[in-house]
Amino acid sequence: MCAYYIAIDPNVDDTSRMLSPLKRMRKKKFKSEWAMKLIKLLVKEDTSWENTESRLTKHRAKFHQYGKSSSTTQLEEIAESLARLPDTPLLLATKHGCTQVVEEILELYPQAIEHIDQDGRNILHIAILYRNHEVFDLVVNTKYAKERLRGKIDNDANTLLHMVGEEAPDVKADIKDPAHALQDNMKLFKKVANICTTLDNMKLNSKSKTAEQLFNEKNNQRRIEAKEWMIENAKNYTVVAVLIATVAFAAEYTVPGGSNPQNGQPVLKRKSLFFVFTIADAASLSTALTAVIMFLNIITSTYKFKDFETSIMLKLNFGLFLLMVSVAMMMVAFAATLVLTISSGRKWTDITLYVVSFFPVIVFLFTYFQRNIDFSSIYRKIKDMINYMHSWFENPKPAVWYPVSQRTSDRP
User: Fold this and answer.
1) At 384, which helix (H) or strand (E)?
2) Residues 313, 318, 322, CA angle at the centre, nearest 5°?
3) pLDDT band at 170 (very low <50, low <70, confident <90, very high)
């Protein structure tokens, strides 16, 4: 589909012979290209990012309100909220995750990376607050941007790490369970910490809290919800795994075709599908029991913040994978049993029986991989690897990379 999209010419006038799906793709590409042209034109004319106040006033931390009454403070906050100016296009694009707009502005005006809003927040502050990872990666990978922005604080003395603890109320993120949402926040905290200085971990904001303290306070309720969600799901998965193990265990003693009463050997022992049945049933039983152990381990975990980053989620994913394998192997064992007991020896009858028997296995595997594996990310990784290998062979290596004997032999 991507190849067709690239090959389509959006400026074609005659679309009468074009299929309706291609017409929709052509219309979409036409809109995208003209939108980018309009964006480039507007970016050249827009200089709103220059309206940035002095950093001396923006970075003045407001730690205390001594000497002021509560009514005076409230009046000041109301006046400040009424005096707020609308966000500039650069800040709006950062909030809504319009990576192409941000890239165009920074490419044409590199100095716009210093732009801050009325709260003293720069692009990285806002990208973290609104959980726009693409904008964050774009700015961090921009030349010299990380060194210029990573140590900055806003009007409330919040560093980039402090912003991980905060979250915009109107963030349109994917609907996730509390455990995965907490894991995403833990990964984001670690990701931001990698670009921050050591001093940022110890800085206090206007509420005298470090970034870690603020993160734990804001995510404590989510941690409690994630704990309840994990325990409830682990119990349900345990029941399913035990039922599968019970069925697989019982199938070992009631083999298809029965047993020979004289020696106790299975009647269909020499059949190739009987071997498939035996392996599939044994795999279903072993994976189901292993999944039970993983889920019981999850139920008895401590549920600390660090556990949600790797260990608990790894146990859950591994247990679910084993449970899915157990279900798939049980389906294979069922299909092999059905073919062994009903097969009539006729070609078309056997083909139909094979299709009907293994159809649930195919549907199950397709839906599982489609839901749990991001094929687009795998494609991007393979593409990046190919490009890296191509550049590796295209660019000549320095002389220090070659052995000493080879370097000396090349000398005249």
Assistant:
1) helix 375-394
2) 150
3) low
Contacts 24+ apart (CB under 8 A), 76-79: none
| pLDDT, tens digit, 9 for 90 and up, residues 268-306 | 666 777 788 888 888 999 999 999 999 999 998 888 888
- Say if residue 55's pLDDT is above 50: no
Q: Residue 317: name the closest of 301, 289, 299, 295 by CA.
A: 295
Report the C-alpha gap between 218 and 222 in whole angstroms.
Answer: 8
CATH number for the domain running over 229-375: 1.20.140
Q: Where are the alpha helices (DSSP H) in 151-210?
A: 160-165, 178-195
| pLDDT at residue 48 is higher than 90 | no
| Range in 131-135, 310-314, 364-368 the model is least confident about | 364-368
The rounded distance, in Å, linking the Cα atoms of 158 and 145 is: 19
Give the architecture-level CATH label for domain 52-64+77-209.
Answer: Alpha Horseshoe (1.25)
Closest CA to 172 of 135, 136, 130: 130
Q: Which residues contact 81 (CB under 8 A, 6 or more apart)?
A: none
What CA–CA distances, in Å, run from 17 to 13, 14, 23, 283, 316?
11, 8, 10, 54, 52
Q: Which of 232, 238, 231 is nearest to 302 (CA)?
A: 231
Residue 376, H or E segment: helix 375-394
Question: 62 in the Ramachandran plot: left (φ > 0), alpha (ψ -120 to 50) or beta?
Answer: beta
Give the Cα-Cα-Cα angle 363, 368, 369 (nearest 5 degrees).
105
Evaluate whether 164 touches 189 at the Cβ level (below 8 Å): yes
The contacts of residue 342 (CB under 8 Å, 6+ apart) are 353
